[in-house]
């Protein structure tokens, strides 16, 4: 567990953040640019001096103003993958990788060099200088360098921000692999909801140096402050579920959600696998009567708990179903015509096909679907 | 072999002046290097009260007449000066009117050149790299030795070569502080000056001037070559 409770002043910026992040696991520090995410990461790494508070990692105090403890950054064993990689220009790729490895605490090693090199696909780059690496390659090297220092916490400060969109796919899977392969806690700084959904199992929502909310992605999905950040288009339910069955003929898998079953297309998923399902509000249809004669595969009985105005003609309906809370984006006209109101029983319809490509197959870990952000 | 053959083309006095110039310049660079790196680091990275004062003080030799520098050195490091007297009493070392004194005067004159070059290269190193090294477990000395110093290397080299080349020709401060003693402080420019002052020394002066020009060109070529090699190794 990473326990953070900090007060920090940087110029006019006032910072007071308090949160606990599970360990191991991936915690996302999520917020818009300028929310103080990087500052918080720097303070945890020991690169920025807080005014007050304390930081504990797995029981060990890294910083505590009250007792005067302030472990130097070089002794915190916190790996840091910076936004722009910060590779050492006078060293080769191999030299960069070895820099951290040589300074690692003996006997605490868990990441072997050959394993990291293979996982990150760095074999062919080892002898190269770092000047002519692509953005994606640079971040992979930076990841490897940080890992080989055998850190007990890995900070990733928007590691994909300096990587162009096409190359992101070159790095994201590696991050997933590292998360699954090494049970090292990670703190992932991001303002991209899709990345967060793919990687994180805990989200800390930051704004103007304050923690607005924190929780698992499915807990946080209905949060209004989160929605204010990601926009109503990206709003939706997030479900961490297990695959119960798969039909090799139709390609549909079945997952359980309370007593109801959801079917959706997820090639390659095997029963037992944990998957993260992202159901965008705009893909959910509400019906006041049991539907029949429809092609929709998933009709789940539930109760409207809230109707929230989101713009002139958009209403976001929260629907409590057995075991989860879905969200549906409906028009104001539909609310009037169907007489939608809190407490009303409805059927939430989710097309199996609309989830195609949004749910990622998983091995042992929960895997997210991707919103189109 | 080649060098020996060339040296045979020179008169003993000319050889003496040439070797003395090389020695004085080399000594002054050696004396300056650690100091210049320290001052450059202080000026770029450290925040302290007397920072601009130090900056101005280091750059003073650039704007002062060299004779003034030599005169100040006589006052401070001369046998009756506070530093010179102390050195003489405790170590039996005399600086004024010696080769080491000439090197000291040259060093003071070329310090700003060296500090400027090193400072430029230090300023171009992103602080982020040192922070990255910190998170990888490198302490302050370790970071300086493995990240900062290697990345400063092109600036240090450029500064050293410039200071060396300038040191070969230092005149005013040397003649004021160390005088013009054959075999002791009569470097190339001082020998050239002496030749010009003596009747019928025109030919000798021309030979020494040619030698100085050749030396300067060789120095510049060497600097360019070394800088290229270093840049290639650093991959920029």
Describe the protein in words.
The complex is a heterodimer of chains A (373) and B (236). Chain A is of the alpha+beta class. Chain A contains 9 helices and 20 strands. In chain A, strands 7-8-9-3-10-11 form a 6-stranded mixed β-sheet, with helices on both faces. Chain A has a 5-stranded antiparallel β-sheet with strand order 2-1-4-5-6, with no helix packed on it. In chain A, strands 16-20-17-18-19 form a 5-stranded antiparallel β-sheet. Residues 361-373 of chain A have low confidence and may be disordered. Chain B is mostly helical. Chain B has a single domain (14-234), classed as MetI-like (MetI-like fold, Orthogonal Bundle). Chain B is globular and about 70 Å long. Chain A binds chain B through residues 45-47, 72-80, 82, 84, 86, 88-90, 99-100, 103-105, 129-132, 145-146, 149, and chain B through 126, 128-129, 131-139, 142, 146-147, 150-151, 153, 233-236.
């Amino acid at each position: 567990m990473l326990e953070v409770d900090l007060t920090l002043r940087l110029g006019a910026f006032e910072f007071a953040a308090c949160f606990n992040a599970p360990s191991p696991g991936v915690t996302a520090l999520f917020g818009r640019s300028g929310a103080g995410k990087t500052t918080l990461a720097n303070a945890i790494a020991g690169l920025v001096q807080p005014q007050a508070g304390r930081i504990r990692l797995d029981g060990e105090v890294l910083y505590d103003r009250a007792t005067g403890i302030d472990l130097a950054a070089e002794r915190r064993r916190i790996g840091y993958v910076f936004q722009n990689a910060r590779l050492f220009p006078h060293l080769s790729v191999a030299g960069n990788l070895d820099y951290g490895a040589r300074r690692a605490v003996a006997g605490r090693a868990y990441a072997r060099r050959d394993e990291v090199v293979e996982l990150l696909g760095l074999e062919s780059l080892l002898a190269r200088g770092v000047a002519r690496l692509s953005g994606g390659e640079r971040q992979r090297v930076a990841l490897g360098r940080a890992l080989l220092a055998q850190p007990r916490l890995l900070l990733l400060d928007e590691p994909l921000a300096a990587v162009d969109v096409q190359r992101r796919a070159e790095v994201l899977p590696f991050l997933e692999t590292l998360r699954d392969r090494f049970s090292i806690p990670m703190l992932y700084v991001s303002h991209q909801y899709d990345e967060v959904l793919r990687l994180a199992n805990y989200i800390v929502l930051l704004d103007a140096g304050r923690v607005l909310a924190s929780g698992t992605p499915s807990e946080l999905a209905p949060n209004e402050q989160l929605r204010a950040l990601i926009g109503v288009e990206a709003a939706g339910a997030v479900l961490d579920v297990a695959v119960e069955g798969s039909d090799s003929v139709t390609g549909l898998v079945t997952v359980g959600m309370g007593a109801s079953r959801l079917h959706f297309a997820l090639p390659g998923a095997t029963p037992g696998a944990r998957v993260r399902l992202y159901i965008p509000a705009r893909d959910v249809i509400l019906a006041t009567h049991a539907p029949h004669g429809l092609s929709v595969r998933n009709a789940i009985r539930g109760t409207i708990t809230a109707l929230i105005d989101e713009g002139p003609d958009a209403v976001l309906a929260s629907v409590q179903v057995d075991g989860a809370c879905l969200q549906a984006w409906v028009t104001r006209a539909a609310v009037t015509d169907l007489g939608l109101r809190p407490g009303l029983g409805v059927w939430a319809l989710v097309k199996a096909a609309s989830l195609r490509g949004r749910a990622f197959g998983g091995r042992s870990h929960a895997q997210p679907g991707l919103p189109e952000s | 072999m080649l060098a020996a053959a060339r040296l045979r083309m020179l008169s003993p006095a000319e050889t003496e002046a040439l070797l003395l110039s090389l020695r004085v310049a080399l000594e002054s660079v050696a004396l300056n290097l650690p100091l210049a790196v320290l001052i450059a680091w202080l000026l770029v990275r450290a925040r302290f009260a007397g920072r601009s004062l130090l900056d101005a003080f280091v750059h003073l030799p650039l704007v002062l007449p060299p004779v003034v520098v030599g005169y100040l050195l006589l006052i401070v490091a001369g046998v009756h000066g506070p530093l010179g007297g102390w050195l003489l009493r405790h170590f039996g070392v005399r600086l004024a009117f010696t080769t080491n004194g000439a090197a000291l005067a040259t060093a003071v004159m070329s310090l700003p050149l060296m500090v400027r070059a090193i400072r430029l290269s230090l300023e171009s190193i992103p602080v982020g790299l040192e922070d990255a090294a910190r998170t990888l477990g490198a302490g302050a000395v370790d970071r300086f030795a493995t990240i900062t110093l290697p990345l400063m290397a092109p600036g240090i080299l450029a500064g050293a070569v410039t200071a060396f080349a300038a040191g070969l020709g230092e005149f005013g401060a040397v003649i004021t502080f160390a005088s013009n003693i054959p075999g002791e402080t009569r470097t190339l420019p001082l020998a050239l000056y002496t030749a010009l002052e003596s009747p019928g020394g025109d030919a000798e002066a021309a030979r020494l001037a040619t030698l100085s020009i050749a030396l300067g060109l060789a120095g510049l070529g060497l600097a360019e070559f070394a800088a290229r090699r270093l840049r290639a190794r650093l991959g920029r």
